Amino acid sequence: MNLLKLTCLLFPVLLFSQVNEIEQDSTSIEYLIIEGDSIPRRSIDLEEVMILHKLTFKDRDAKIRYLILRRKTLKVFPYAKMAAERLDSMNSRLATLTKKRHKNRYSKQVQKYLEDEFSEELKKMSRTEGQILVKLIHRQTGSTAFDLVKELRNGWRAFWYNTTASLFDISLKKEFNPNIEKEDYLIEDILQRSFQSGLLDRQESAVKFDFYELTEKWLHSPEVKN
């Protein structure tokens, strides 16, 4: 005799719309009852988990460099994530405005808010932390910090932002490129491990790459290997 399960404990989202129940027969095969049709299933959908290789280092200095990079990445990533979220919210809001003066007024409000929100914290960052932040802004938004400033302000403003940053050896045009830059791959490795451990809230990259292919490539690096 078939036993009915209360699937609201397992599939609350599906139950909200059209899935009514799950039946299980004597062979332990589960059935989704969707609008009168039974669909057999032998598995339960789970969130994708990335399998990460075990890191080993050629020497103590390589390990120390990785740990320093990890500390700096963990420090600046929340700001890059926040910038991406603010930019997304701003673009969504701008899409609802029809008059140019309203868009300009709203953009200036967001710009001032971002400057007030970030300025003091950015002043506390070191040069390398600032450059990592620039890279991560590109990772999170798909645009360089230079292009974002140019879009939000104007080309002249972006030029001066980049010139000022260059005095501290920071380029706002720097991109996140783990395919070419070993440091960027290590940053991505740090992010993935931190997402899984819960140290950082996950936010997907706007820059497309295959992390597993990159791992295979960089495993032969003199710094990090399997």
Written overview of the protein:
- The chain is α+β, with helices and mostly antiparallel strands.
- The protein folds into two domains: 3-41, no CATH class; 56-225, no CATH class.
- It is 55% helix and 10% strand.
- The protein has eight helices and six strands.
- It has helices spanning 12-17, 60-94, 100-123, 127-141, 145-152, 155-166, 182-197, 211-218, and strands at 3-5, 19-24, 30-34, 37-41, 56-57, 224-225.
- The strands form two sheets. It has a four-stranded antiparallel beta sheet with strand order 1-2-3-4. A two-stranded antiparallel ribbon has the order 5-6.
- It starts with a strand and ends with a strand.
- The model is unreliable at 1-29 (pLDDT under 50).
- Pfam families: DUF4294 (PF14127).
- It comes from Pseudalgibacter alginicilyticus.
- This is DUF4294 domain-containing protein.
Q: Could you report the average pLDDT, rounded to the nearest whole number?
A: 76
Shape: globular
Give me the count of strands: 6
Helix/strand class: alpha+beta
Oligomer: single chain
Gyration radius over CA: 24 Å
* Number of structurally distinct domains: 2
Share in β-strands: 5-15%
How much helix is in the residues?
40-55%
How many individual helices?
8
Provide the spatial order of strands within the biggest beta sheet: 1-2-3-4
- For the record, give the distance between the C-alpha atoms at the N and C termini, rounded to a whole number: 52 Å
Largest sheet: 4 strands, antiparallel
Secondary-structure element order, as H and E?
EHEEEEHHHHHHHE
Low-confidence stretches: 1-29
Protein name: DUF4294 domain-containing protein
InterPro entries: DUF4294
